Amino acid sequence: MHIKMAHIRSNSLPSINHPTILRIKEELRKLKGFEVSQTAEAILIALESLKDLYTYVDDLLCLSLTQQALIHHRREKWVDEMLNGSVQLMDLCSSARGALSSMKEHMQALQSGLRRRRVGGPSIKCEIRSYFLYRKKAEKDLNKSLSTLKKISNGCSSSPLLNENNNASMVFEVLREVMRKGTAACEGEDGDVNLVQRVDASLSTLCGHDSSKDDDAKVSQAQKRMVELEGSIERIDGGLECLFRQLIQTRVVFLNNISL
Predict the structure, then answer these.
(1) How far is it, in rounded angstroms, from Cα 204 to Cα 217?
(2) Interatomic CA distance for residues 118 and 114, integer angstroms
(3) Crossing angle for the helix pair 193-207 and 77-116, nearest 10 degrees?
(4) Any idea of the CA torsion for 241, 242, 248, 251, to the nearest 10 degrees?
(5) How far is the C-alpha of 173 from the C-alpha of 14, rounded, in Å?
(6) Which has the closest alpha carbon to 28: 175, 159, 157, 245?
C-alpha cells in the first residue's frame, strides 16, 4: 500500500496508554532496582526481564502507527543513533559472553593445576597471577565498551517528535530508556560478585603462603568456590545468549520498518 508521507503526523503514534506502552513501562520499572544487586540470581532475572522488554519493543515496532511514524522520520539523526546504539549493545553482549567463556577456561586450567601441583610452588603462583591479570584486562575491556555505549545512550539527540505531542514523546523516550536499561544490565554481567570475591580470597591465600598441613582444606575450598562460580557463569551466559538473539530480532524489525 502506498503511504503518502506528507499526511503522516506524529499524533498517529500509539497512545501513551496503549497496552504495549504500558507493558514496556512496567518492565522498565522492574529493572530500576537491578543496578544495586549483582548476585547471579539477580542478574539472571534482569537479563530475562530485559529480553521480555525487547519482545514488547518488537510489538510496539510492529504496530502500523509506529511503522508509519518511523518511515516519516527515518532520515533523522536520532534514528541513526538508535541503530548505532543497538549494534553497540549487541557487541557488548557478545564481548561479555566471550569474557565469561575465557574466565571459565582460566578457572578450569587453574583447577587442573591445583590437582597436579604443590600449593605455594612457583607454577601455581604463576597460574593464579595469570588468572588475576586476565580478570583485570577483561574487566578493563568491558568497562571501555560499556563507557562507549553509555555515551551513545545518554547522548541521543532530541527528536522533533518531542516537540509535537506527548504521545510521540513517550514513544521516543521509551525506546531510549530501553537502550539505557540494556546498558545498566550489562554492567553486572561479569558474574556473581560475591562468588568472584570469595574465589579471589581463596586464590590469594593459596598464592601468598608456603606449603603447610592445611593445604588440602584450602585447595578444596578454592576448588569448591570455583565450581560454584563456574555454574553461575554458565547460567549467565545462557541468559546473555537469549538476550543477544532477541536484540538481533528487534534490530531486524526496526530496520524493516525504516526500509518500507
Answers:
(1) 15
(2) 7
(3) 40
(4) -130
(5) 13
(6) 175
For residue range 158-190, list pLDDT tens digits in order.
444 333 333 444 454 555 566 555 555 555 555
Query: In whole angstroms, what is the distance from residue 187 CA to residue 44 CA?
Result: 13
Per-position DSSP letters for 113-180, written without gaps between them: HHHHS-TTSHHHHHHHHHHHHHHHHHHHHHHHHHHHHHHHHHSPPPPGGGGT-HHHHHHHHHHHHHHH
Q: How far apart are the first and last CA of the chain?
A: 10
pLDDT confidence band for 257 (50 / 70 / 90): confident
Higher pLDDT, 44 or 73: 44
Closest CA to 146 of 96, 193, 192, 103: 96
**C-alpha distances out from residue 231 to 49, 107, 208, 222, 242, Å:** 21, 12, 26, 14, 17
Check if the beta carbon of residue 73 is closer than 8 Å to that of residue 159.
yes
pLDDT band at 113, cuts 50/70/90? confident
Asked if residue 43 lies in contact with residue 188, where contact means CB atoms within 8 angstroms, the answer is yes
